[in-house]
Amino acid sequence: MTIYDLVVVGGGPGGIMGAISAFINGHKNQKPLKIAIIEKNSFLGKKLLLTGGKRCNITNMKPVKELLLKTSNKTFLKHSFYSFPSEKLLELFKNKGLDFKIEEGDKVYPKNGDSHSVLNILMEYLKEFNVDIFLNSPVENIKKEDDYFIISSLNNIFYSKNLLISTGGITYPTTGSTGDGYVFASNFSHSLSKIHQGLLSLTSNDTFIKSLSGISLKNITISFKHKSTNYFKKGDILFTHFGLSGPGVLDLSNDIVEAICLENKSSDFLNGFFNNFYITLDFLPQYNNEELKNIFKTEFNKNGKLKIKNYLKHFLPNRFIEDFLEYIGVNSDKQLSNIKKDEINSLITNLKNFKVNINGFFNKEHGIITCGGVNSKEINSKTMESKIVKCLFFSGEIIDVYGPTGGYNLQIAFSTGYLAGLSLKLA
Ligand SMILES: Cc1cc2nc3c(=O)[nH]c(=O)nc-3n(C[C@H](O)[C@H](O)[C@H](O)COP(=O)(O)OP(=O)(O)OC[C@H]3O[C@@H](n4cnc5c(N)ncnc54)[C@H](O)[C@@H]3O)c2cc1C
């Protein structure tokens, strides 16, 4: 019978990094550790392969201080982010020959644009460190007797001195995230904070919005008002056949859930609040209304013969302009000198303050992340060890912390996994 130093349940980024860092930690202490990862799928990292449109937005190069501010719990994540920041994470991959590029918003992707290359290197480390990998092995039950965890999977029983639960959340369940870890944590008397999907697309019945399907706009401001608070996000949006998506919309959806849905105490609180709910799009946030008015005044005088549809190409994509002008009732072939004052006002109002009726979230199972989970107050933020059960660790999305789009959530999984592995009891 093998007694492992560490068994990791769940082979996503949080679990894999836990195993890698545990080995490095043991190695430093001249103690080669016996480590196993138990995974229900037929291969590790199924969700990781989908990330960043399969290009893997692995992390974000903003300074740690700024990254933390955008997460849901900077106090809890501080130690793990400083222990294993983006630079250290990338170093691990660069050491094995993978190059990265930084895109808008400080998002980091592998240069080759392929998430497989990230997973392949993680697998190389696991092989090098002799980590035992058990695939097609859904863990069904875990208990602790004396100083050992006994982990029962469909086809095996494992014994271990330390246990890392890293089973992810509840979204994209076909990737293996079906919330199993919450049961294991609850059985060890951990409490769970309210669990729901996050970073969601929004649905709309506005036929105009649907007619723009496939068009994306860069760096616009999206907002809504609830009670006396204005909520804003700046980012790219994508018009779709169901409504709106894209990073800016996904990020705003978390504010909508937190500001509005969580007030509703029913279990399906992501449904039912969408009565007369609007978000506002500002297509040209770089100018305020007055500035835009002055720009239009000057340019319309200077370039009187130019058609309005051609002039607006300075600001917006071609495909959007004609549909937009038609929708607001301005003839797109009109020359600038012939645009009337009320048409200019309508242009400015609609460019700066375009209302979209929102009637729900699109396909909640496909939220990019899970919000809520194992209560972080019951986990030691300096080690990722449970404050309730000794030698039990958590990493990744199973913990009730999350970030916006842009590489934050993978960094959370990698940083918490790394810290857990580093903090094992090696005696
Ligand atoms: C479409 C999509 C795109 C995304 N893009 C990005 C991005 O570009 N950048 C970013 O930062 N984040 C992104 N995310 C979020 C990111 O993928 C997750 O935050 C991250 O994968 C969480 O890692 P994890 O290891 O905690 O969980 P997971 O990756 O979900 O891994 C958990 C693993 O545990 C296994 N498991 C579960 N239960 C059991 C059990 N009972 N027994 C054995 N194994 C079990 C699962 O099969 C799974 O392999 C994206 C998410 C999605 C869905």
Automatic annotation (TrEMBL):
Organism in which the protein naturally occurs: Methanobrevibacter curvatus
GO molecular function terms attached to this record: ferredoxin-NADP+ reductase activity
EC number(s) reported in the record: 1.18.1.2
Cofactor requirements of the protein: FAD
Keyword annotations from UniProtKB, A to Z: FAD, Flavoprotein, Oxidoreductase
Annotated coiled-coil segments of the chain: none
UniProt-listed Gene3D superfamilies: FAD/NAD(P)-binding domain (3.50.50.60), HI0933 insert domain-like (1.10.8.260), Translation factors (2.40.30.10)
PANTHER family noted in UniProt: OS12G0638800 PROTEIN
Pfam families found in the cross-reference section: HI0933_like, HI0933_like_1st
Name of the protein in question: Ferredoxin--NADP reductase
Residue ranges constituting the RsdA/BaiN/AoA(So)-like Rossmann fold-like domain according to the UniProt record: 5-421
Source taxon at top rank: Archaea
InterPro entries: BaiN-like (IPR004792), BaiN-like_dom_sf (IPR023166), FAD/NAD-bd_sf (IPR036188), RsdA/BaiN/AoA(So)-like_dom (IPR055178), RsdA/BaiN/AoA(So)_Rossmann (IPR057661)
Residue stretches making up the RsdA/BaiN/AoA(So)-like insert domain: 198-360
Protein's UniProt keywords contain Cytoplasm: no
